[in-house]
Structure formats: structure tokens, C-alpha cells
Amino acid sequence: MDTSTYKSEVAAAFNSAAATYDRLGVEFFTPMGRRLVERAAPAVGDRVLDVGCGRGACVFPAAERVGPEGRVVGIDVAEAMIEEATKEAALRDAAMVELRVMDGEHPDFAPHSFDVVLGSYSVIFLPDAPTALARYAPLLSPGGRLAFTSPVFSDDTFPFLPPVFTELIPRELLLDLPPQWQPEQLQQRFNSWLADPRDLTRTLERCGFQEVTVVDEPVTLVAESGLAWVDWSHTQGMRLLWNHLAPDKRQQLRERLITSLDAMRDGDGPLTIETPVRYVTATVGN
Ligand SMILES: C[S@@+](CC[C@H](N)C(=O)[O-])C[C@H]1O[C@@H](n2cnc3c(N)ncnc32)[C@H](O)[C@@H]1O
Q: What DSSP line would sit under 17-59, residue for residue?
């Protein structure tokens, strides 16, 4: 699969998910985005770039921090995400927020335009993330900060999902996936540098960053039920998996997941999963 086909598929998946993305009552991206912004700690007046901003899980917490004197620019390859985030910015009267359709691998900004670059669960979708990250370094002012999140995964996990979910997905249901969408292929092609903190640190240093920190911390994912989780999974990266499964396998996986997730609930209580998230921060060299 060439890079542009992959990117179009990713954009199409998030365009069709945008209307309900992070709005199905499942808590995950919003608390993660808020936590990432806490870690990056933009100050009043700072200029922030959020790469792969989606509907604004980081944009709006960042806007609260930088205030009217600051600026928060959210970019995303999916136009429908940008439309939803733009509506939200208007509702909040957030004049310091600017949203643009832009490929995160080709950020079109002048050098030193930002004090902080963020990317929550978005860097994992960039086909050549290290090259993109190297392009963010010159966009930062001296001492500027990079902060992003990713799943905590290993080489055999489905690339866009935390391992706990990969463990619930029977491998035999994935055998019919086209080769280029097999978890191992995607993982090795795009995200293997994120699995080991030492590789990650070395990669960021080569990209022009220093003082790299890698902290794994859980986000408490809460969904009303297994069914609610499965419906939600169609609105995030797992949509790429659903899209490539044959209808019978899709149905089998749906049933298997609902059963195993409901078995993890405490009676009729909600499904609560402590989901490890990797928070990476770094500063740019002067
Ligand atoms: C899982 S969502 C995360 C969105 C948001 N950061 C959040 O935390 O809710 C991944 C986002 O990355 C965007 N994305 C994927 N590839 C991209 C690219 N090449 N350039 C910009 N955005 C991209 C998707 O469209 C999607 O909105």
C-alpha cells in the first residue's frame, strides 16, 4: 500500500466518524487530551500547534490555558473533524483557536511559529512520523516543547489500539484482512519506533529534540456496556480494522467483543478499563 492510499483511507475513516467521534458517551480521548495538555503546560500567551486535532480534545484545554493573548492552531487531514472542531470553537467563542485542514506530515508554518506542539493519538497515524517530527522542531521557538500520546504497545498488537483490546480480538478473525492491513505489517511499517522507550528517545533526539521523557499512565476508559464500546470503536482508529473485515467476520468479532467486554463489567455497572497511555514530552534544542 502506498503512502497516499493509506492516508486517504485514514482521512476517509475519520471523515465518516467525525459526527460522533468522542461523543458516544465513552470517556477516553477527552481525559487523555486534557492530561496531555496538563503535561505540556502551555502558559498564558503561548502559541500552540495541535497535530491531528480531531474535534479538539487538546485544542480546547490548551485554549483555556493560553487565554485570549495566546493562539491554538489545530490541524487535521480529515475535513469533517475540522468542521466539527470549528463549530465547537464558535460555540465556545474561542477566538484564539484556528482550525485548518492540513496534513500533519507537511505542516505549512514559518519557523518559530509555536511554543508547544501537541499530538494526541495522532502521531501513530503518520506513515513517516519521525520525518514529520523532525519538521516540527524548527517550527518551535527556542526551548519550545513537543508533547504527544500513543498507545503502549508491542510489536504484535494492532497498531491503533491499546494491547488490552488486541488481546480480546481472536487472531483467526484477522487472517482474511488484506496483507497490508495485517497488524504486524502496519505496526512494523509505521510504529515500531514507539514500542521501546529507548528507540523512541533516540528517534526524537535525531529529530532535533532533547530532554525526552516517556511516561506510561493509565486513562480510565469508561463505557456503559460492551455494546457501547463496540459502537464507539467504529468511530476511532479501529474503524480501519472494521472497514477491512468481511461481513461475516465483522459480525463474529462484534459478538465476541460484546461478550468478552460485558464479562469484564461488575454486574450491571459500566465497563471500566485502565488503559495504559504513553505520554511523551521533549524540548527542542536551541
Ligand atoms: C484518534 S484521532 C485523535 C484526535 C484528537 N487528537 C483526540 O485526541 O481526540 C486521530 C486523528 O488524527 C488525524 N490524522 C490522521 N492522519 C493525519 C495526518 N496525516 N495529518 C493530520 N491529521 C491526521 C485523524 O484524522 C484523526 O482526527
A: HTTTTT-SS-BSHHHHHHHHHHHH-PPTT-EEEEET-TTTTTH
66-86 pLDDT per residue, tens? 999 999 999 999 999 999 999
Task: Report the separation in Å between the CA atom of 127 and the middle of ligand 1, taken as the mean of its atom positions.
Answer: 12
Query: Probe ligand 1: pick from 51, 77, 186, max atoms within 8 Å of CB?
Result: 77
- Tens digit of pLDDT for each residue in 173-227? 888 888 777 777 776 667 778 889 999 999 999 999 999 999 999 999 999 999 9
For 3-284, CATH gives 3.40.50.150
What is the domain partition of the chain in residue ranges?
3-284
Q: Whose CA is nearest to atom 1 of ligand 1?
A: 121
Q: Sheet harboring 209-223: ordered strands across?
A: 97-101, 71-76, 47-51, 114-120, 140-151, 271-284, 209-223
